[in-house]
């Protein structure tokens, strides 16, 4: 189990190191937070459940309109944004972005980490 925790911690560190990411979590598709790096306290079980639910809802909406698949879901607010990205069969990356972040650049880096997670976990 320690090897898995170490791998998860490594991936959380990679996401957190992306310029513009304020906080992040690796969340199972059923809403359990496997690893995290938050800059403040929050209700982790609730956050994990919401991230999984939002992503699953987006997948359902995409299916209804016959699109291929969900690459990411972005929630934008005036001071920050949340990007959800599938990372293989079992995980999602939830990244909270700082204000005035280059979303396209962050997206490219998140996609690279998500592909690596898909191969490793």
Oligomer: single chain
The outline comes out as: globular
Distance between the termini: 12 Å
Q: What percent of residues adopt helix (DSSP H or I)? A: 40-55%
Strand count, sense and barrel status of the largest sheet are:
5 strands, antiparallel
Fourth CATH level, the homologous superfamily: Dynein light chain 2a, cytoplasmic
List strands and helices in order, with pairings.
Layout: H1 2-16, E1 21-28, E2 33-37, H2 44-64, E3 72-76, E4 81-87, E5 91-97, H3 103-120
Antiparallel strand pairs: 1-2, 1-5, 3-4, 4-5
Describe the structure.
By secondary structure, the chain is an alpha+beta fold. It has a single domain, classed as Dynein light chain 2a, cytoplasmic (Beta-Lactamase, 2-Layer Sandwich), CATH 3.30.450. Helices cover 45% and strands 26% of the residues. The protein has 3 helices and 5 strands, in the order αββαβββα. It has helices at residues 2-16, 44-64, 103-120, and strands at 21-28, 33-37, 72-76, 81-87, 91-97. The chain has a 5-stranded antiparallel sheet with strand order 2-1-5-4-3, sandwiched between helices. β4 and β5 (91-97) form a beta hairpin. α1 (2-16) packs antiparallel against α3. The mean pLDDT is 94.
């Amino acid at each position: 189990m320690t090897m898995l925790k170490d791998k998860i911690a490594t991936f959380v560190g990679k996401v957190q190191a992306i310029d513009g990411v304020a906080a992040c979590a690796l969340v199972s598709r059923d809403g359990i937070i496997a690893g995290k790096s938050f800059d403040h306290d929050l209700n982790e079980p609730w956050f994990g459940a919401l991230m999984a639910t939002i992503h699953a809802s987006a997948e359902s909406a995409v299916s209804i309109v016959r699109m291929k698949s969900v690459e990411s879901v972005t929630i934008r607010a005036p001071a920050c944004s949340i990007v959800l990205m599938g990372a293989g069969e079992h995980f999602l990356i939830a990244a909270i972005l700082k204000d005035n972040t280059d979303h396209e650049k962050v997206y490219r880096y998140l996609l690279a980490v998500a592909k690596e997670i898909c191969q490793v976990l």
